[in-house]
Design brief:
Helix content: 25-40%
Strand content: 15-25%
Strand order of the largest sheet: 2-1-3-4-5-6
Shape: globular
CATH architecture of the largest domain: 3-Layer(aba) Sandwich
CATH class of the largest domain: Alpha Beta
Distance between the termini: 10 Å
CATH topology of the largest domain: Rossmann fold
CATH superfamily of the largest domain: Alpha/Beta hydrolase fold, catalytic domain
Structural class: alpha/beta
Bound molecules: zinc ion
Oligomer: single chain
Largest sheet: 6 strands, parallel
């Protein structure tokens, strides 16, 4: 059973902009199949013009439904919806329409979002305290009521950016760490059909026995050497030349190997090894 991540952009915020671009890459690295929804031909929307926003939503919802009508939702063990602005509204309504029960990552839901009585079961929401399009007070209220996890970016505008590039990059890093938590928290298989268990670093099902019993095993997908002597993810691992498991996981996401120097030895996971 596979995992699917569907991306719902905003009107102006496309999938090539940072929040969606990096979320999408994280999903790919965690073995999700990706589907991008796209909409075309919007008229410009003035700030706070809810009539125009509603029209944009209707158009986007119609287009999204057309693009997703052939998806066999039942064949995926995990469905993740990642959405931005007007797209958050569309994602919630698509979820309701097809009764999918997707997990949602929502960037800057607007005042219109949730106005259709479509509430995801599970959502992680990001909002900016300086966002005029999506007032954070409103988002906070909804998140409290529905038990959604909310992350607020201090001073963040509708792109969750402020005026300082360094701060923006720092914030983006924090945001992506939270996104990764959502992506990772997907139910992992305990073992695959060949009886292999997940690697502590890349999560691929490569271990012949549970990692806690296998000293010295080197994962062929990420080249992390199993270390039974480290107590936590932040303790340097002697078996991995002083690298911590936390650093190795990050490296795997960035480079596809637990250590960039080992990249030449790794291989892609086999279909049966994909978590
Ligand atoms: Zn591995």
């Amino acid at each position: 059973m596979k995992k699917l991540a569907v991306f719902f952009p905003g009107v102006g915020y496309t999938i090539s902009r940072p929040l969606l671009y990096y979320s999408r890459r994280l999903c790919m690295q965690h073995g999700y199949e990706i589907k991008d929804v796209s909409y075309h031909g919007f008229e410009p929307i003035g700030k706070g013009d809810y009539d125009m926003m509603f029209k944009a939503y209707e158009k986007a919802f119609d287009e999204a439904c057309k693009q997703l009508e052939d998806v066999d939702w039942g064949k995926y063990r995990e469905v993740l919806f990642v959405s931005k602005s007007v797209g958050t509204d569309v994602a919630a309504c698509v979820d309701k329409k097809y009764d999918i029960g997707a997990k949602h990552i929502m960037f800057t839901p607007t005042k219109l979002t949730f106005s259709h009585d479509a509430f995801p079961q599970k959502a992680t929401v990001f909002g900016g305290t300086g966002d005029d399009w999506a007032p954070v007070d409103y988002i906070r209220e909804i998140c409290e009521k529905k038990g959604y996890k909310l992350h607020e970016i201090k001073g963040g505008n509708h792109s969750l950016e402020i005026k300082d590039v360094r701060e923006d990059i720092k914030n983006l890093k924090h945001i992506m760490e939270h996104v990764e938590e959502c992506v990772e928290s997907a139910k992992h298989k305990e073992k695959n059909n060949s009886g292999k268990h997940p690697c502590p670093c890349c999560g691929c099902l490569t271990y012949p026995v549970v990692p806690a019993k296998e000293a010295g095993f080197i994962c062929p997908v990420c080249f992390w050497e199993n270390d039974l002597y480290i107590k936590n993810e932040e303790e340097p691992s002697d078996a991995n030349k002083g690298l911590t498991l936390k650093e190795a996981k990050r490296n795997y996401l960035d480079w596809g190997a637990s250590d960039l120097k080992l990249k030449k030895y790794v291989r892609k996971p086999l279909p049966d090894e994909i978590p």
